[in-house]
Design brief:
The protein has helices at residues 2-10, 22-31, 52-55, 59-65, 77-83, 88-104, 121-130, 144-154, 339-359, 398-410; strands at residues 12-19, 36-42, 45-51, 67-75, 110-114, 158-166, 169-176, 191-195, 199-208, 210-211, 218-219, 224-227, 229-233, 239-244, 248-264, 266-284, 287-292, 301-312, 316-336, 363-373, 377-389, 391-395, 428-430. By secondary structure, the chain is of the alpha+beta class.
């Protein structure tokens, strides 16, 4: 590539070689370090390319080897300028093109961010915009060292930043701390554990709090499963007070999950007609130019596009975007579902529901699905019996605490009939 550009700017010739001893001529050129390339034998002679300044040096060699040289073509910038020496507007256009490129090279037209996982590109681009660094900003006004320091100061989770300008692109590479930058706040507010949904308790492990249910019990949504108030007794087995704790337990129960999906009698299907169109759109700032044949007919078209920013030699980005557009015509029609298609649709819906439950870590014990004919279509009705965690935290508010305290004071379990076992805060396992 480098040699090709050098030959173009210096100018080169296409030569036909014939005569008494062409091989001697070629050997003499090699001895004089005269560069020739693309040498090939054609029509009883040789053809090759040579630079203009080397062509002037071969005249003594021509006489010595008794050969004849004929110029077949002249190429390169010097000959191009000579041929167009009278086309002033052409020259002005070329100079204007390079002048515009020079002006464009003074600005940032692309920002590339690498290595970010926790902070998205939009977040970092929004911060750069707050620092007056955006598309179209002059490169001379960007201090990369200061930018690196400001990003590290703004985002402590980013431990390393590298910013540099290449062409018209601002390249930012970051490395985020894999360890959390702050210690999570431990929640210690008192709470009860209540049931999220009705079910039958199968097993439970209570780590903190007082269990209110046991395996085999049936609970409803909102029932207290584990109390966050642990009774404290004295040596005489008299209730002294209740210690508020943050109830913690794993409580599994068999619950029921139902779902319904509607399928109309008539299904809609799309089919391509085979007609297609292609187009090109050029976007420059707020301007947009579209080259594409107009749509014909009454059928709709599906349009897809692929956008790319125009670049010149690697990182020299320009504020020009080019969109390649493809359009395909299609038509829709309705048809009645057959029994096989209806069965496939039922299985598809049911398997999707099974997949959703499996992703949640729920163990499916039983499942069933049926199709019911409704007035406007078919109804897919499915049922699952699953074993899952059903506890949910409920904070103990002062109002709730006063109500529970009043109930506990008036109950026979806490005042009249004392229990034989002293309950203290700690671990309790049931089931």
């Amino acid at each position: 590539m480098k040699d090709a550009l050098k030959h173009y700017f210096e100018g080169y010739l296409c030569i036909r070689l014939k005569g008494f001893s062409p091989e001697r001529f070629l050997n003499l050129c090699m001895a004089k370090q005269i560069v020739i390339w693309d040498l090939k034998y054609q029509d009883g002679g040789y053809q090759f390319f040579i630079r203009v300044k080397d062509y002037r040096r071969v005249r003594p060699l021509v006489r010595k080897a008794q050969v004849r040289l004929r110029i077949l073509g002249r190429y390169g910038l010097p000959f191009f300028l000579y041929q167009n020496r009278k086309r002033k507007l052409y020259a002005v256009g070329i100079l204007s093109f390079f002048f515009v490129l020079f002006l464009m090279s003074q600005f940032i037209w692309d920002i590339n961010i690498e290595g970010n996982y926790h902070f998205t590109d939009d977040v970092l681009l929004h911060y750069l915009d707050s620092q007056d660094i955006r598309y179209g900003r002059r490169k001379a006004g960007i201090d990369c060292d200061r930018l690196e320091e400001s990003i590290r100061s703004q985002y402590p989770e980013i431990i390393w930043v590298s910013a540099r300008i290449s062409g018209t692109r601002l390249m930012i590479k970051v490395k985020e701390n894999e360890v959390m930058g702050t210690i999570p706040v431990k929640e210690d507010a008192p709470r009860d554990l209540v049931a999220k949904k009705p079910g039958k308790i199968t097993r439970m492990v209570v780590r903190r709090g007082k269990a209110q249910v046991a395996p085999g019990d049936t609970v409803e949504a909102g029932d207290v499963l584990v109390r966050g108030a642990v009774p404290i007794y004295n040596d005489a087995e008299e209730l002294v007070r209740e210690q508020l704790v943050r109830a913690d337990a794993d409580i599994y129960a068999i619950t029921r999950e139902d779902y319904e999906e509607s399928i109309p009698f008539l299904a809609i299907k799309r089919a391509d007609t085979g007609k297609s169109r292609q187009g090109l759109r050029l976007r420059l700032g707020g301007l947009s130019f579209l080259w594409m044949l107009p749509a014909w007919g009454e059928n709709p078209w599906e349009i897809t596009a692929k956008s790319s920013q125009v670049t010149v030699m690697g990182d020299f980005y320009l504020p020009v975007w080019m969109d390649q557009i493809w359009a395909r015509e299609y038509q829709t029609y309705e048809y009645f579902l057959t029994n096989d298609q209806l069965e496939q649709e039922k299985q598809r819906i049911h398997q999707k529901k099974i997949g959703d439950l499996t992703e949640k870590g729920v163990q499916i014990l039983e499942n069933s699905v049926k199709i019911v004919k409704e007035g406007s279509g078919w109804q897919i009705q499915g049922t699952f019996l699953v074993e899952e965690l059903i506890e949910a935290g409920k904070e103990i508010t002062p109002e709730l605490l006063e109500g529970e305290t009043g109930d506990a004071t008036g109950s026979s379990d806490l005042s009249g009939n004392q229990t034989n076992t002293t309950m203290t805060e700690g671990e309790q396992t049931a089931g």
